[in-house]
Amino acid sequence: MNKSKLLLLSTPLALAISGILNPAQAAVNIQCPGDKDALNTPSSIDATPTLGNPGYDPKVKCKHLAAGDGFITMADSTVTTPNEMYILGFSDLTGVPQNKAANHGLLAATSTAPTIELNEGDKFYLSLTNVGMLKRPDLFDPHSVHFHGFPNAASIFDGEPEASATIGMGSTFTYFYDIKEPGTYMYHCHVEASEHMQMGMLGNLYVHPAQDGSSYDDDTDVEVKDYTKFAYNDVDGSTGYDVEYPIQIGSFDSVFHAEHIAVQPLPFADMKDDYAVLNGRGYPDTANDTTPPAVPSEVAALHNTNVDTTDDIATTQPLSSKITATVGQRVLLRISNLNVTRNYTLAAMGLPMKVVGRDARILRAMDVNNPLQSLTQTGTDLYYETNSVTLGSGETADVLIDTTDVAPGKYFIYTTNLNYLSNGAEDFGGMMTEFQVI
Measured between alpha carbons, how far is 250 from 258 in angstroms, rounded to an integer? Predict the structure, then answer.
């Protein structure tokens, strides 16, 4: 049996039918100018184009994602009884050959989705392949990527289905973004958004400013310190930091997820989330910085037996939320909320929080005497100190925590929505993580 027939038999029925009926449109066709494998067949996308290749540009970055389904393991599991939840989501296909991409993306969805980290000035090519839903072959849902809060030059790349492109099963679409504004963003599928976001199609995304690499003295510190990494182009070092961590707030309604895989009517009007998570995990799994939660049994079984899939899926919940800092370091938390049911508050116990940005904008007032000047050059800082941050769905905050006067030890970042400090019916978990000062 040749490879094309093997691939066809091992993909969902809907994906196979789509490929037969629409051979010209339904295909994995990734794009990345200057990619080192661009001249080979089958080609793959690597994250960085290679010097000497046609179309090479040092500012080009590329990524290839799959949209499909999968499972995650909730934190109230035991060794003998894993609590697995069905999800829809994205997985990383970057570097996977085109003729293996569809199989590699099957039942590989992760929560949260693969993190996208960019620099101001980058030209970003994001290819999305819809591999279909292995456990829901009755569905033919298209998918998209919505770069939330980003000012797209063309609406076709926005991901909102009424005015832009969406991707049918068996097809690939490449988005292009000219990265102009630094800050903390997020991304999600915008097709049937309430359903697909509740099911887990959510990811961290942030942009480093052009100021990175320059040295600035931040004279707001008791001891003046040089920084070379910044949340924004602040021109004074006031958003400088030593280490950064993305923290995405979310929560799941386990009944909604169970009804989804059971092919039952979905209770949209009765969503009541009972699993609160940070970066796709509930405590104590949020603070697990070495061994991630176990791969769900169905995912492991497929990827251990599928001959066209590289067995490299270490976890479906890859991103820890544990924060580690040395005394004196300043930590940047890139906090986002993509929950579809409610607002959440995150608090820091015993740690000073300074909010320097909201919704990918530095908190700095416009200078009324120079209204055409950049906010980074003029205007009054509107940073504020607090012990908690409240975010609605689609909002982000850039929070600095300075450990200069913090005693070494273990601290906690947690929700003040105390009923969400649980994993389902099990208390002492949920939306909480550890902040270790050493």
Answer: 18
| β-strand partners of 401 | 331, 353
In what helix (H) or strand (E) does residue 433 lie, and over which residues does it extend?
strand 432-437
Two structure tokens written together for 19: 């490929």
Pairwise CA distance, residues 365 & 361, whole Å? 11
Beta strands (DSSP E) in 107-153 are 113-119, 123-130, 146-148
Q: How many domains is the chain built from? A: 1
- Under the banding of pLDDT at 50, 70 and 90, the label for residue 19 is very low
Residue 275's DSSP bridge partners are 252, 423
Three-state secondary-structure class, residue 393:
coil
Residue 8 has pLDDT above 70, yes or no: no
Question: Using 50, 70 and 90 to split pLDDT, how confident is the model at 220?
Answer: low
CATH number at residue 230: 2.60.40.420
Q: What is the pTM of this model?
A: 0.89
The whole domain housing 380 covers: 3-437
Q: 10 Å Cβ neighbour count for 123?
A: 17
pLDDT at 24 over 50: no
In whole numbers, what is the pLDDT of the chain averaged over residues?
A: 87
